Amino acid sequence: MHAAVVRTVARSAATLLLLTFPFLSAVQAAPAGESIKLGLNYPATGRYKEEGIAQAQGALMAIEEINAAGGVLGRPLELLTANTASDPAKAVENVKALAKQGAAMLFGGSSSAVAVEAGKEAARHQLLYFGTLTYANETTVADGHRHMFRETYNAHMAAKALGAYLNERLQGKKFFYMTADYNWGWSSETSLRNYTGTTDVNQHPGTLVAYPRPRENDMRNALELAVKAGADVLMLIQFGDDMALALRTIHSMGLQDKLTIVVPNLTLAMAKTAGSGILEGVIGAAPWSWQVPYRYGYEQGKAFVEKFVRLNATYPTSSAASAYSIVYQFKDAAERAGSLDTNRLIKALEGHKYSLLKDEQEWRALDHQNVQSVYVVRSRTREEILQSHLREDFFEILLRLDGKDTVQTPDEWRAERRAVGAPLTLQ
């Protein structure tokens, strides 16, 4: 199929076009062949599709703004997209196709398995890969390499923030882990156990849940084990539609008032999928939510939220914010480097500090992990959400931790690399 070309507008119509074609090019009007192509490798279908759609919206909005201001190095940006359907093998084939089309950089992902494999393939083509939603520690630890930069936080950072909040309030409670059976789930459980003092699997048991495409019966069987174990706290390590399915099953079993429910990574897209009634009271972590700029007075973040709402009639999720930020970080790195050469872009990114939608962030040179503040949130009551603008004020911010207080130390990072036989510097 020939790539369709449309004017870059971060509107619902543009997003619908992105979902219609497996590869779509979006560029503000410019002479053919002069654009800088960015490849968004994202789930337009499947159980994480809402997160993927949000990434497309955020990326399109950034590209429209940058092109209106003169582009990058005097050239307009163009967006190429490919649907991963959250399938690692498909994501790898997408990287090959996007590289062949001339992408200067790749980004995206709503599954860590996708991001890890796509990032490795990008490295084979000497291209940068920016991870959007990839929370597994492995992305920038065991599987980290020079060409991978993670824009969001990792499971370690989310767990440390959640531990700081939960340890004061849930001492003496029995935890049960209901974990998605893939790399994000495993690393999230390990990190959460470490930072909540629940490493004793006899005292705080758990079970793995089939991934991908778990069924309601899989959720029900896991929840029955939690009830049998006498759990007080359910660590629900599920994401996207799977998290919503688990919560619906909890309500159908009448367990919502019997368990404190913790979801390690919460996003607005997940909240909307689950619904205000069944998400009420759920605690989780987030790298960003649209309430953050208003709570802490970040003016650029407010402007982003308000423009996004005008264009899309919905609030931006952390997925949209991540894709938007990545496009701007690519622009800034290219301008600092004065080049699109991958090695020069890597050098321009490493150690760079910036503020965009919240407080200061840093691309740590050691592991290419984005060091940033982490937020612990709780879903508001159904009544509060239904009375809010667009009925999307889901999250109450409970705690904020600085990135330096959550990120792994260099010694911890090297110890994990050493344990899997990985080199102690990124290759």
UniProtKB/TrEMBL annotation:
Signal sequence annotation: 1-29
SUPFAM superfamilies reported in the protein's UniProt record: Periplasmic binding protein-like I
Keyword presence, Cell membrane: no
Pfam families, A to Z: Peripla_BP_6 (PF13458)
InterPro entries: BCAA_transport, Leu-bd, Peripla_BP_I
Positions of the Leucine-binding protein domain: 35-380
Keywords from the UniProt entry: Signal
Record family assignment: Belongs to the leucine-binding protein family.
Name the UniProt record assigns to this protein: ABC transporter substrate-binding protein
